[in-house]
Amino acid sequence: MPKRKSEEMNNPGKPKKMTKGKKDVVTTTKSVVTTHMSPSMKNHVSPSQSDKINISPSIAKNPNKFLGAGTHKKNLTQAIESNTPVEPKTPTSRTPKKRLSKFSPFKKSPQKSPRKELFPKSIETQDSDTFLNFYDRTFDKVVLVSVVQMKEWQENKQTMDHLVDLNTLQKFCSLSQSAKNIYVRLVNRKHAWLKKSSLEEKYGKNGTDVIADLYTMEEAGVIESNYEKEDLKTLLELLQVAELKDLCKELKQSFSAKNKSEMIDAIYKFAIQQRNMFGQDTQSHVKKLIQKYLGECVKLASDARDVFLSCVFLVTFPFYHELSDNVTRLNDYISRIVRTVRGEIKFPSYPLNRTCIFKSAASFRQYMEAYELCTNIDMSCKMKTSETVPLLQKVHELLRATLQDQTAMKDIRERPIYLRRYSAGYIYVKTLYSKLNEIKRDHPKLAVEVLTTLLNQTYFKEYDKGKWFEALAQIYQSPHFKDNNKAADTLLYAFKVLEKQRTDKLSEEERLAEASSGSVKKLKDLGWIKHSLMERANMLIARQKGRIDRDKADALTEWIQDIGEPLTLARVVGLGGKLMPNTNKGLKHVYMSQSSDGSRTYSSVEEQASAYFTRLGYTRYRHDEGLTLRSILYALLWDVIYAPPRYSEIWGVFHSPYQESPLDWRTSNFYERRKSKITKRLSEIKEMTPEQVVAEVMKVESEHVDESCVINWSCVSRDNVNILTNCVASITVPLLVNIGEYIIQDVDHNAQGFPDLTMWNPDKKKSIFVEVKSMNDRLSIQQKVWLHKLCEWGANACIAQLKPSAETGEEKQSNVV
């Protein structure tokens, strides 16, 4: 279970040295101390500077984030005082890492890589009984669960046909156990030709007849051995360097190649250019020579391999949401099983009900193909290749074809919103919007076409239409178009569509109530996106250059008045401090302040802010952007999240014992389908005392601690009972309920933008929420909405912005908003 550490200030007035065993974390020739910010710190630079340097905990713990790659704890002082990042000792460009879910067990930062931790060397060398146990827990379970589930779905008439080929699975099940073991190892390797002799040497221990097993596997059709049809370059890749050199000798050629790749290119070029007496190239002759070196080879049959990987997809889709290949999916599934058996991770207990989501093999296959294509796009973006935009164009064409498929769209219409995520169309829509910046940078017209397609469909991610409208208006305002009138038309149409979308969801009684009141604001309860659209509309109305038509300006003004709810601007507190120069982009800023004794303290802007408010009496704090409060909320709503009533409307959101959350988590369906239960539970919480609230949280903690779920257990640890009680008492229970109700209505969007610091005074029972900004930072619309909401609920909230020219604590208007 990943532990996201929160910062808390226990005794801000006393410098604290971070130690590891008996040695200081920071060791230099000068007096360097890792410390919290001193309350006596002045925010100006004295001409005379002491040799004593204080380095804040965040910089000491993660120096690379502030000072660049290659910075170590031993050279922190050198890096800071030189005003330039330390040159990295190793290249900073690395292969993109597999994206992991927020609560993945791999987020632990283990000593070994996840693969080494889950698949230690002993897996390859241990005795057969141990490996059989390992196998029984993994691949066999994938196959059996798939077979049993598909038969059950077909018997219940939930699917028209089997989602994968059962004949292939039955042939696999007929193999000997040793053959199965070899197969699962080959699935986990690169899909390529392998020498039989190498496989026999590797897997022939403990008396296993590998050659016989390979023969039965070929008879079953799960592997193939005819590699003569492969092209010459593929065959050359299979040879070792020594074998390539011997091949060159047989060809009586000497190539000045420096490595294997150059040697292969040279041999290939020679083979296609050299002609025999009949005018033909010598490729067939070279292939025969290669076969002599390779001997007999085998490779997993592509069709059968696809069947098994489809099984992996079928049993992992409820919990695995990352863009990656199916072999990585298999490894994640194996890791969950193995680590669960070992007791290293746990998952919540909940009733399983595996309803069939895919009505046909075709819909399941299209979903997998869409996932694979979008995985390739994600990798292409990370590697910054030229293939990204062409692949996105292909996705756009596939989406339009999918939307015109009446059978597929009929299936989508019958699904609840949260199950539409498991379809090709949803994957296409999500990918196109998430990679829109890749398109609009050089292809703005294509970006307009993509957004138009997204806005015209009514099947996928309807709750994101506000963002799509704003993105379209922004493109029309860009230098590519410079058409503010089109942007205004887009916003007017957006207001109209979103209001209709809202009213369509109302019941007849709610419509009558709104009609009778006559004072209901438009776009009510739409969330932060309406404020974003209103902000852009106000910007268009106020433009002097490129002014929009008067009728459009009047129409936008009328909509803004009908929507109402202007955002309250939180007060801005200026923080003094000196920004240290930094030449590297992407690094966090380092700020320097000097105390009365001349010592210098280097810290982050958040630590500057926490030090200032600590001096005002807020002696405890969490720098976690609301993570602690969300963890308290989710613990209080545990039964709502993880205990759906049997055969109720929300029955069937748990398909796998390895899920960390229900299938409808982070969708609009989650709140809509549990609204009455959530409202009732929040009403109960509102009547509790802070002690009772924390007692409820501790009850959940004692029963479910360390289970991999939506709660960060380090935030609600039993060791912090007093801290949590003081936090809730200072914030007040009603305010906690208001915060929780707003978040749970739309976890995917409303959890974003919460202020950086939650600070409180346990003695005076007062609290403050602080959004911290450096000099040139601006508030996002989500942050503005959160500050507005907190002020609306009576909370103390403000913006702390670093202003080197200002006196610390000075309040004045800022460009931050």
From TrEMBL:
<dbReference type="InterPro" id="IPR049132">
    <property type="entry name" value="FAN1-like_euk"/>
</dbReference>
<keyword id="KW-0479">Metal-binding</keyword>
<dbReference type="GO" id="GO:0008409">
    <property type="term" value="F:5'-3' exonuclease activity"/>
</dbReference>
<dbReference type="GO" id="GO:0017108">
    <property type="term" value="F:5'-flap endonuclease activity"/>
</dbReference>
<comment type="function">
    <text>Nuclease required for the repair of DNA interstrand cross-links (ICL). Acts as a 5'-3' exonuclease that anchors at a cut end of DNA and cleaves DNA successively at every third nucleotide, allowing to excise an ICL from one strand through flanking incisions.</text>
</comment>
<feature type="compositionally biased region" description="Low complexity">
    <location>
        <begin position="26"/>
        <end position="35"/>
    </location>
</feature>
<feature type="compositionally biased region" description="Low complexity">
    <location>
        <begin position="102"/>
        <end position="112"/>
    </location>
</feature>
<dbReference type="InterPro" id="IPR033315">
    <property type="entry name" value="Fan1-like"/>
</dbReference>
<keyword id="KW-0378">Hydrolase</keyword>
<dbReference type="GO" id="GO:0036297">
    <property type="term" value="P:interstrand cross-link repair"/>
</dbReference>
<comment type="similarity">
    <text>Belongs to the FAN1 family.</text>
</comment>
<keyword id="KW-0540">Nuclease</keyword>
<keyword id="KW-0227">DNA damage</keyword>
<feature type="compositionally biased region" description="Polar residues">
    <location>
        <begin position="36"/>
        <end position="61"/>
    </location>
</feature>
<dbReference type="InterPro" id="IPR049126">
    <property type="entry name" value="FAN1-like_TPR"/>
</dbReference>
<dbReference type="InterPro" id="IPR014883">
    <property type="entry name" value="VRR_NUC"/>
</dbReference>
<feature type="domain" description="VRR-NUC">
    <location>
        <begin position="685"/>
        <end position="804"/>
    </location>
</feature>
<dbReference type="GO" id="GO:0070336">
    <property type="term" value="F:flap-structured DNA binding"/>
</dbReference>
<feature type="region of interest" description="Disordered">
    <location>
        <begin position="1"/>
        <end position="118"/>
    </location>
</feature>
<keyword id="KW-0464">Manganese</keyword>
<dbReference type="GO" id="GO:0004528">
    <property type="term" value="F:phosphodiesterase I activity"/>
</dbReference>
<keyword id="KW-0234">DNA repair</keyword>
<keyword id="KW-0539">Nucleus</keyword>
<dbReference type="InterPro" id="IPR011856">
    <property type="entry name" value="tRNA_endonuc-like_dom_sf"/>
</dbReference>
<feature type="compositionally biased region" description="Polar residues">
    <location>
        <begin position="76"/>
        <end position="94"/>
    </location>
</feature>
<dbReference type="Pfam" id="PF08774">
    <property type="entry name" value="VRR_NUC"/>
</dbReference>
<dbReference type="Pfam" id="PF21170">
    <property type="entry name" value="FAN1_TPR"/>
</dbReference>
<protein>
    <recommendedName>
        <fullName>Fanconi-associated nuclease</fullName>
        <ecNumber>3.1.4.1</ecNumber>
    </recommendedName>
</protein>
<dbReference type="GO" id="GO:0046872">
    <property type="term" value="F:metal ion binding"/>
</dbReference>
<dbReference type="GO" id="GO:0005634">
    <property type="term" value="C:nucleus"/>
</dbReference>
<keyword id="KW-0460">Magnesium</keyword>
